[in-house]
Amino acid sequence: MAVLYPFPKAILFDWDNTLMDTTPVLYKAFRVMRQHYNLPEYSMEEYQAKTGLSLRETFPDLFGDRWEEAKKVYLDAYQENHLAMLTPFDKAKELVRFCYHKIGKVGVVSNKTGFILKEEIDYLGWQDFFFAVVGAGDAPKDKPAPEPVFKALETTNIVCQNGKLSDPVWFVGDGDADMKCANAAGCLPVRVADHNKDGENVLTVKNCQELLSVLYSYK
Fold first, then answer.
1. Residue 5 counted as domain residue
2. CATH for 45
3. How many other CB atoms are there within 10 angstroms of residue 38's CB atom?
4. 137-193: pLDDT as tens digits
5. Is 161 exposed, middle or buried (0-12, 13-18, 19+ CB in 10 A)?
6. 55-109 pLDDT, tens per residue?
7. 117 and 208: one domain?
8. Helix axis angle, 55-63 relative to 67-81, nearest 10°?
9. What range does the domain containing 75 cover?
C-alpha cells in the first residue's frame, strides 16, 4: 500500500459485484422487466453503465407513477433465479470470515432490496458473520447518501461527530455510489476495481483475495 491506512474497527461491504457475482441474474431480471413493458433491449454494457442506485432512486424516472408496479415485475423476475444463480467471488467467504475473527464488526450495506439481501445471506449461511445488514429501503435514504452506513453502525459505539467517525471504518464496494457513500459517512473508501479510478484517498484492490492480503499485512 502506498499509504498506510488505520486498521478498521469495523468494515462494511457492498454485496452485488463486491462479494457476489450477481450481474448475470440482475441483468436477466432487468431484461424480463423491459420485455414486459415492450421497452428496447439493453446490452449488458448498457445495463452495467446504469447500475448502482436503488430501485426507488431509478424506477420513478423510468416509469413515473407506475414505478411500484414495475418494481414488482422486476423483483418477481429476480426472485425466480437469484438463489440458484448466487455465486460468491473467489475468496469472498474467506475474506468475510477473516474480518469477522480479526475485526469483529462486519456489515453489509447494499442498494439491493432489504428482504432479498437478507434472504441471500441466510441462504449462504453467512448471517452469523454480520452484525448489521442494511439494504435498500432499510434507512431513510439509500446509497450514495450516508444514512445506510449510520444505520449499520447504530448498534456499535462508533459515532459520527462533525463529519468524522470516532473510529476507522472501511467501506468496500465496486461502484461510484459506494465511494460517495463512504466519503459522505467518513469511512475509508475501498474500491474493488482493476485499476485506481479515484486517486490516493481511495484504497483500490482488484478482488477479495487482494483485500485479504492487504488486511493480512497488518498482522
1. no
2. 1.10.150
3. 6
4. 999 999 999 999 999 999 999 988 877 899 999 999 999 999 999 999 999 999 999
5. exposed
6. 888 788 878 888 888 888 888 998 998 999 999 999 999 999 999 999 999 999 9
7. yes
8. 120
9. 23-81
The residue type found at 10 is: A
**What's the whole-model pTM score?**
0.91
- 109 with 149: CB under 8 angstroms? yes
DSSP state of 20: B
- The helix-helix angle for 67-81 and 23-36 (nearest 10°) equals 140
* CB distance 109 to 14 below 8 Å: yes
Examine the domain organization and report whether 139 and 206 are in the same domain.
yes
Which CATH number covers residue 103? Answer: 3.40.50.1000
Q: How far is CA 27 from CA 22, 47, 74, 148, 182, in A?
A: 9, 7, 10, 24, 26
Query: In terms of residues, how long is the chain?
Result: 219
4 domain residue, yes or no: no
Number of domains in the chain: 2
